[in-house]
Amino acid sequence: MLKTIFPTLTRFRFTIQILMLFVTVYGGALLGTYTVDRISQALPSLACAFDKQTGDHCILIVNQHQFHHRIGEALAKAQEVTYKVFIPTLISVATFFALFFFLNKAFCGWVCPMGTVQEVVYRVGRKFGRPLHRFNQSNVGRVRPVKWLMLLVLVLGLPLLAGMGTVSNDLGDPYCQVCPSRLATTLLTADTEQIALRTSSGVTFFLGAAGNALFGFIIIAALAVRQPFCRICPLLSWNALFQRLSPMQLVKKQNDKCDKCSVCEKACPMDIHEIGREHGRKAFHEDCTMCGRCVEYCPDDDVIQIKFFGVKLFGSSREAYKKRVKLETPEGLPKNKVIWLTQAKENQHG
Amino acid sequence: MQKKFLLNAIFLAVPLTFPPLALAAASAPTAQPGIAAGEHASHVEPAGAGAAAVKGGMGEGAGKPMAWTAFPTLKTRMSGEGRERRVVTIVPQGIVANSIDAYSNNLKDAKAHRQLVLDMAGARLDKPESGGFHWLAAREEQGDKVKVASTVYFFSDRGAQNPTALFMQPKHELQIIPQPYPREHSRYRANEDWKFLVHFNGKPLANQWVRLETQNGTKADWISDAQGVVTVSIPDDFKKVEQQKAAGAHDHGRRSADFVLAVEHIEGGKSYLTAFNGSYGADAFDQRSLAMGLGFTLLGMIGAAPLLRQRKKQAADTKSAATETAKNKDA
Known about the structure:
The complex is a heterodimer.
Chain A: H1 2-5, H2 9-31, H3 59-76, H4 83-103, H5 106-111, H6 113-127, H7 140-164, H8 174-178, H9 180-188, E1 197-198, H10 202-221, H11 234-242, E2 248-252, H12 258-261, H13 263-267, H14 274-277, H15 293-297, E3 304-308, E4 311-315, H16 318-327, H17 340-348
Antiparallel strand pairs in A: 2-3, 3-4
Helix pairs in contact in A: 3-4, 3-7, 7-11, 9-10
Chain B: H1 2-27, H2 49-56, E1 73-79, E2 87-93, E3 99-104, E4 113-117, E5 123-126, E6 132-142, E7 145-155, H3 164-168, E8 174-178, E9 188-189, E10 193-200, E11 203-204, E12 209-214, E13 219-223, E14 229-233, H4 238-246, E15 256-267, E16 270-281, E17 288-289, H5 290-304, H6 312-330
Parallel strand pairs in B: 7-16, 9-16
Antiparallel strand pairs in B: 1-2, 2-5, 3-4, 3-6, 6-7, 8-10, 10-11, 10-14, 12-13, 12-15, 15-16
């Protein structure tokens, strides 16, 4: 019966994504005002604390506050930086890891509301026949370091310097000010407060302007580029630090046919070319969001698998591949739906 | 090659346009909140005996009243060194009490209910292991008059328990209970509606006048409904402060102010006056510009627009995919 309701892994994942979108965006309204204080406050996904109805919020705001108010201030006062200063940070990381342990990067591909929003927008772009822009092997390497810069500078560095008094206190939570999830999730609750720019100081204005422009760019770019913000998201890099420590792993066996195939590379929304060329640990790249599309589109049995404690949860299969490609190309172009704009153009030309 | 250049140009152009625009905007006068001047909180004139009873209760009782209100309040102030020791000092005003009752939202905790000793500086509440919400109350009884001041204090803590049970727990005869109280990272703000429940002996008190007084000078009254619920509109009276400044009045320069909600009820020959105080901030759109926010969002969208252009080769690919679809359908 499950296979009838969820004929493909993508359908199953999309259902989970919509469910988690409601929990992360509207959870407070559905489950109670104080839900956000009770679940984790260290979610490995971009659920936003600025959303007044959120059911939980991500770990990045907690990191920034702790580096700003605890660690940075302790360093500025030249206090003995004992383990007590780090205890709240360690507790947050432990809470984060308690969740991450079970799902690994699936928090990106299955839970994150911003990831879901980008995927929905991308589907709209496919329906309207918009072009697909991909990063090839030569230029994808230029984008990948950006997420580490975002983590080191915006999430950790600037808040630490703000706490030490080296930079303005307005830089206490710089990542939150540029994060598109803050705008996306609050707009989904019809709250326009966050999209309004703060004008109280030059720094907050600049950060807010950058954040708004980035949000606008991402929303439109998502029509033609898969997961545009995920590629530079600092939570992707934060999760990547721990991805080898979780029992949930993406496993790829060596296969001689891979060199002539490369369908998994086309299917991968993060343009991870290593999935087609490598095997073992190298195939499970730091950019992987465990969406499972490479598993779905691998035409050979059990070459790519998602395993939990060594037990296969999902594995590639030829039969599943044949059914999958009838519905959608590896790049996400639907095959059984009319492409509206192209049909209109064909009618015009007779 | 051309596409690569265009993509690179877009990725560079978007961030490069921000600094000059930001500098230009930062040097411009600060945008005014989008609320028309002259819109103030309700100043509904109270009518009926209930309202008269509220007015009659004002100003009585020992203890030096706050300058802005005659109702009893509990002022809280964080003290202690750094963030390692979290201690709150509670100072009652407009009420004479021997102690402060502190109720924790961890009802099973040994420190679920504590009586804090009052000295010259006030009473001290230290953060218990459970942290979370605390209900604070001071009580004064003189003859047939009972006066209660109450407020809520929140110690930041992971996994703080839902305070609803704490709030609904009967503590005094007449109570004003927030429904709900703002959670962490949230607060009362101007131009927002918040519900409060008026209880007497554990039962809703309907058709009861509730008075709001704010530190900025607003006075307003509401009447509770059949379920004892009153919806209070937090007034946007910070403008009043700015107008007073323009007239040469003392500059408080605050974007946060205190408020007190009070209700009085007479039953069984006794007069009960209960007040609940808290603080509220300026309107959500204070020092924010929606127009500029939408403008920069649109700028970003325009920056990404070239990505949507259909190239000839891509159009051909899309058409061939559509042709394949049509063939599949015919088959």
